[in-house]
Recover the amino acids of this structure.
């Protein structure tokens, strides 16, 4: 019985391994896993190394789900494979995806799935066991309730699919479940290999983007091969048995709220060389940054770090359905704390817009960021770069966002999924009925060293929308 299952009643479960439907496979039997993807399999579970996406189904058709999954694996054979040699190789052996079905004694699937319930509703494999091929690269768990509704949880190694690829796979699976014709997704590994920088260019990029000239060392190897796996095993235990990191604050913004925020955040006047519009993401992030102002010291000479996890496929000239485990960049924007304290909503939103469109978040910059971190992975110095990304100096507050609010909830032939939750992070925006949900990572508060009272004040400010300017 799962660690929270006793709260919700007894259940019965069974597991079947779903394999590709095609008996003949004429592709390669093994593939080298790019170093940039391997990096995402080394970290503990609390860093979404084997994340889950749980969807509420209005009705469950177990047979249809299994048959269409088998066909989806024909198009994406990697998902049915197994890793080996510590994640350096993936075997395209059709070993399959374990599909667990749980018959719940509860009347109906929860409309609002609590994050900690993912421990019971989804399958989480320890990253080291996935890298060694002891556990599957992906796993499915379907919980069926008395009224026929259900929760479908799709878990996978981040080496296999990043967020974009995971949703691409769900879309393929759902289309096949409805009987639609589907083309195989893109997998341009040779092209991605050509994107890797040579030694000289890598050093130039590392210096330009992060001010470092990383070199492989004994320390880097010890950190990667001994320290991280050892600490990760301990952290995984806390995650699996205590729900460590599944404690994000949950906020809802309706479509009307977001429209109002965007209207109020749009600058009325800007210099001739700047846009006079902002995106909904920029408006919401600016609003949230303003809500964090009680956490900042009035006389600070430091910075606020705003980080966006951005999909790099467009910047890399890759199709949106490119299957990969590392198609993202960590795009960091540093704003002087005094500016955050003095700016109004339009000013801060416009600042974020300029940074994302023409500076740090531009397509050219994203390409350089991706090539730098991927080049670092191939040289065994990725931890040097990651420390520069996540351990910047003189930071008063760090706020990192993964905007997944535009994801389309799939329809597996029994009606569109009604809600979604995932442990991917850090702070994530997810689609919700009539708006979006913000799952706010509490690390933003610990980064500022704030008190409980300051945290509560910030949360209240987030739910108080700005007054309409007449």
């Amino acid at each position: 019985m799962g660690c929270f299952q006793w709260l919700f009643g007894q259940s019965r479960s069974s597991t079947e391994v779903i394999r590709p439907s095609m008996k003949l496979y004429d592709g390669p039997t093994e593939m080298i896993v790019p170093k940039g993807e391997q990096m995402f399999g080394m970290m503990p579970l609390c860093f979404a190394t084997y994340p889950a996406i749980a969807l509420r189904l209005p009705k469950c058709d177990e047979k249809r789900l299994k048959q269409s999954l088998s066909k989806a694996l024909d198009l994406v054979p990697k998902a049915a494979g197994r890793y080996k040699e510590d994640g350096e190789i993936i075997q395209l052996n059709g070993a399959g995806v374990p599909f667990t079905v749980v018959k719940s004694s509860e009347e109906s699937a929860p409309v609002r799935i609590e994050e900690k319930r993912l421990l019971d509703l989804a399958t989480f494999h320890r990253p080291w066991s996935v890298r060694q091929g002891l556990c599957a690269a992906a796993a499915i768990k379907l919980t069926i309730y008395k009224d026929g509704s259900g929760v479908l949880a799709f878990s996978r190694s981040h080496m296999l699919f990043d967020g974009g690829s995971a949703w691409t796979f769900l879309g393929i699976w759902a289309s096949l479940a409805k009987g639609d014709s589907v083309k195989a997704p893109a997998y341009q590994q040779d092209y991605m290999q050509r994107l890797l920088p040579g030694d000289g260019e890598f050093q130039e990029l590392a210096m330009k983007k992060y001010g470092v000239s990383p070199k492989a060392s004994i320390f880097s190897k010890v950190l990667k091969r001994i320290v991280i796996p050892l600490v990760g095993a301990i952290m995984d235990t806390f995650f699996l048995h205590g729900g460590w990191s599944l404690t994000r604050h949950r906020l809802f913004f309706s479509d009307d709220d977001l429209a109002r925020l965007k209207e109020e955040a749009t600058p009325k006047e800007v210099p001739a060389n700047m846009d006079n519009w902002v995106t909904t993401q920029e408006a919401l992030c600016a609003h949230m940054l303003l809500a964090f102002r009680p956490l900042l010291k009035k006389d600070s000479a430091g910075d606020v770090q705003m980080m966006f996890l951005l999909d790099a496929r467009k910047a890399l000239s890759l199709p949106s359905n490119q299957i990969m485990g590392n198609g993202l960049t960590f795009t960091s924007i540093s704003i002087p704390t005094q500016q955050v304290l003095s700016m109004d909503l339009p000013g801060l939103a416009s600042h974020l817009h300029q940074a994302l469109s023409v500076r740090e978040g531009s397509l050219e910059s994203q390409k350089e960021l991706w090539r730098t971190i991927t080049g670092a992975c191939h040289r065994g110095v990725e931890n040097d770069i990651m420390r520069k990304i996540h351990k910047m100096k003189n930071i008063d507050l760090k706020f990192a966002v993964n905007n997944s609010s535009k994801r389309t909830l799939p329809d597996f032939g029994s009606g569109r999924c009604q809600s979604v939750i995932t442990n991917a992070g850090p702070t994530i925006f997810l689609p919700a009925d009539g708006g979006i949900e913000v799952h706010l990572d509490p690390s933003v508060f610990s980064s500022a060293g704030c008190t409980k009272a300051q945290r509560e004040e910030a949360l209240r400010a987030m739910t108080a929308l700005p007054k309409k300017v007449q």
Remarks:
- The chain has 16 helices and 15 strands.
- The radius of gyration is 22 Å.
- The longest strand covers residues 303-311.
- Residues 248 and 442 are 6 Å apart (CA to CA).
